[in-house]
Amino acid sequence: MNPSSLAVHCQNVVKIYDTGDQKVTALNGVNLDIALGELMMLVGPSGCGKTTLISVIAGILDQDSGYCEVFGEDLLNMSNQHKLNFRARNIGFVFQAFNLLPALSAAENVSVPLIINGMKRNDAERKAVAVLEQVGLGARATALPSELSGGQQQRVAIARALIHSPRLIVCDEPTSALDHETGHNVMTLLKDVALHNDRALVIVTHDARIFDFADRIAEMDDGHIVEVKGVGVQASPASTSKACTPVAAKP
Ligand SMILES: Nc1ncnc2c1ncn2[C@@H]1O[C@H](COP(=O)(O)OP(=O)(O)OP(=O)(O)O)[C@@H](O)[C@H]1O
């Protein structure tokens, strides 16, 4: 792939967690390119390294070796301040555990990326309410996270990842707490809002109901990418024998 058409370029990325008494190799030489304008899904058995990989891509975690470039920038070798600014401007992250601030309302949570990027609080909260409306939560803008269901908290987290129009959105299981219809609506919104030809979307998922939204699906096992396939391409017998569900054909 032409380097200028890439949103993400990972080459031989290794990440080892050292807990003192044991070392866990979570990423064992990951090679992955994600194109501008692409929705890439990442699948694979529990513990194979998916969350670790998207955390490296989003600049939340440093790899031990190898190379990871996002929009042509090497996050590992940025100064902390440059990395904070780069992330705040360019990356939206939907965490598996949502990571909402418990003392802030839904609208205040969603407005945080805009305030970090310098917008006045009132303007940011007004825009946050508008994005909450897009995810079907306009009426719950003043609710605290503890007053919302799991699925509602997940949609607040998605609104927060979208609000500042980042060029890269990284989501860890964004539909896990959502029913079929809400999950479908959220994926439609993510794809519409996130995907322009200068942006990209990376989604870790076990949810076969949303596979059709992907342009390509990368299958991970044991710390590396074992197969990348376009949607509509039949999975090989070797890949279907693992924990991944075969990819459905696009309608
Ligand atoms: N902070 C940590 N300290 C030590 N080991 C960790 C840490 N985070 C993850 N691991 C280990 O690294 C490996 C990869 O974990 P990771 O969370 O990336 O997998 P995953 O594919 O996202 O799993 P799941 O689908 O269950 O969320 C696992 O063996 C996990 O136990």
Task: Please tell me about this protein's structure.
The protein is of the alpha/beta class and 251 residues long. It has a single domain (3-240), classed as 3-Layer(aba) Sandwich (Rossmann fold), CATH 3.40.50.300. Helix content is 30%, strand content 27%. It is built from 7 helices and 10 strands. It has helices at residues 50-57, 80-90, 106-116, 121-134, 150-162, 180-194, 237-240, and strands spanning 6-18, 23-35, 38-43, 65-70, 73-74, 91-94, 168-172, 200-204, 216-221, 224-230. The strands form 2 sheets. It has a 6-stranded mixed β-sheet, with helices on both faces. A 4-stranded antiparallel β-sheet has the order 2-1-4-5, with helices on one face. Strand 4 (65-70) and strand 5 (73-74) form a beta hairpin. Helix 3 packs across helix 4 and helix 4 crosses helix 5 (150-162). The longest helix has 15 residues, at 180-194. The radius of gyration is 18 Å and the shape is globular. It starts with 5 loop residues before the first strand and ends in an 11-residue tail after the last helix. Mean pLDDT is 88; it is low at 233-251. Bound molecules: adenosine-5'-triphosphate. Adenosine-5'-triphosphate (ATP) binds at residues 17, 19, 24, 26, 44, 46-52.
Order of helices and strands: EEEHEEHEHHHEHEEEH
Principal-axes geometry comes out as: globular
User: Can you identify the CATH class?
Assistant: Alpha Beta
Biggest sheet, in brief? 6 strands, mixed
Quickly give the structural class: alpha/beta
What is the C-alpha radius of gyration, as a whole number of Å?
Answer: 18 Å
Strand order of the largest sheet: 6-7-8-3-9-10
Q: Indicate the CATH topology.
A: Rossmann fold
Strand content: 25-35%
The figure for the number of domains is 1
State the fourth-level CATH superfamily: P-loop containing nucleotide triphosphate hydrolases
Bound molecules: adenosine-5'-triphosphate
Q: What integer is the average pLDDT?
A: 88
Low-confidence stretches: 233-251
| Discrete helix count | 7
Question: In which range does the helix fraction lie?
Answer: 25-40%
Q: Roughly how many Å apart are the termini?
A: 27 Å
Pfam families: ABC_tran
Keywords: ATP-binding, Nucleotide-binding, Transport
GO molecular function: ATP binding; ATP hydrolysis activity; transmembrane transporter activity
Domain ABC transporter: 8-247
